[in-house]
Specification:
Elements (H helix, E strand, L loop, with lengths): L1 H27 L18 H18 L5 H8 L2 H7 L14 E7 L6 H14 L3 E5 L9 H9 L3 E5 L2 E5 L2 E7 L9 E9 L2 E9 L7 H12 L3 H35 L4 E7 L7 H7 L3 E2 H5 L17 E5 L3 E8 L11 E7 L1
Parallel strand pairs: 1-2, 7-8
Antiparallel strand pairs: 1-12, 2-4, 3-4, 5-6, 6-7, 8-10, 9-10, 11-12
């Protein structure tokens, strides 16, 4: 019996060490450009699984052999920054000053019905934000009577480019700044605005989509509910191919985006939009080395922004330069007209 206990203890110890190493590899893979190593780009999707397994090992060792509990604790502690990126827990709440500005970023590409579009514009009117960044809205939104009414009633200006709107009370300064990608799709729309005595660069993004069709998503969900070896092999490989191809394209886009941010270091910047990547990704981590992640600073929980069951991920993000104080950040889940939820946050200048 003693020999069996020692064997099981050694077995679990070895398994825990492997889990810790895999967890570290997943986190550090976000430093590797998918353009060079596309196969590593999907590792971040396994982050929550390995984080949970490490937590379970903490509980296991506390019950059965407390002297080994340091292994999963070190495993988690060394990567606590990534855990906070993925699931921040900011319990303290700031008093929002009267001069705080409210910003919304919202991908409205799947608001296909007339009723959904009306509800979306009603939501934007009720939200009464100072800055609204829309993705995949397309030019015909500006022709809608309710959209024009929104602009007039809230004293908004707007600029538009390739499906992305920036709607704001701030004065528009000059022309849009071109930021073109030599890739198949994905857009970044940059414009200057005047806020009090400052000029702000607002950067609205819709980076390369993962190109999953509705039938692909349905089959993926079915594969999770009713796993079969043949289906997992076939559809699993297809899914990985979609994701790695898009990640490689997106990495080139985010490299260009970060070069632009670097060139404008010292200027006031608000960067947001649908980045089509999770917090444990090359895209997110690359931008977070240049700017401050709004949700990391003031958000709570996983903050799922993709509004589709079975895909619990945060792929809509916001970042700001050091001259901003972040007071609040949350995902608004009351509006379900799109396949994304809006990300809402408030700021003041330091």
């Amino acid at each position: 019996m003693k020999v069996l206990k020692q064997f099981l203890s050694s077995l679990f110890l070895g398994a825990n060490i492997l889990v810790v190493l895999a967890f570290w590899a997943i986190c550090l893979s976000s430093y590797v450009s998918p353009a060079n190593f596309p196969s590593l780009s999907t590792m971040g999707l396994a982050f929550p699984v390995f984080a949970v397994v490490n937590i379970l090992f903490v509980v296991f060792w506390l019950i059965f052999k407390i002297r080994h509990v340091w292994i999963p604790l070190v495993g988690l502690g060394c990567m606590v920054s990534y855990i906070w990126d993925y699931c921040p827990l900011n319990m303290s709440k700031d008093e929002e000053p009267e001069n705080a500005i409210k910003v919304i970023t919202f991908n409205v590409g799947r608001t296909l019905s007339e009723d959904d579009r009306q509800k979306t514009i009603e939501y934007l009117n009720e939200a009464n934000a100072d800055v609204i960044c829309l993705q995949e809205a397309y030019a015909n939104w500006a022709q809608r009577a309710d959209f024009k009414k929104l602009l007039k009633s809230r004293n908004y200006h707007y600029v538009y480019n390739q499906g992305e709107y920036i709607i704001t009370r701030f004065d528009v300064v000059g022309d849009s700044i071109p930021l073109r990608y030599f890739t198949s799709s994905g857009h970044t729309f940059v414009h200057r605005f005047r806020h009090q005595e400052d000029t702000i660069l607002i950067i609205n993004n819709h980076l390369e989509s993962n190109k999953l069709k509705d039938e692909d998503k349905a089959e993926f969900k079915d594969m999770i509910k009713r796993p079969r070896k043949d289906k997992i092999e076939k559809k699993g490989n297809e899914l990985v191919n979609y994701l790695t191809e898009a990640a490689a394209i997106r990495s080139v886009q985010v490299d260009s985006l970060c070069q632009f941010v670097e060139k404008n270091k010292g200027k006031s910047i608000i960067l947001c939009g649908d980045l089509n990547d999770t917090p444990i990704s090359y895209t997110y981590q690359k931008i977070s080395r240049e700017l401050n992640s709004v949700f990391r600073k003031k958000g709570n929980g996983v903050g799922t922004t993709f509004n589709e069951k079975g895909f619990w991920v945060r792929i809509d993000h916001a970042f700001v330069s050091d001259d901003w104080t972040i007071h609040a950040a949350y995902v608004e889940k009351k509006i379900i007209t799109s396949d994304h939820y809006p990300l809402v946050f408030s700021l003041t200048k330091k």
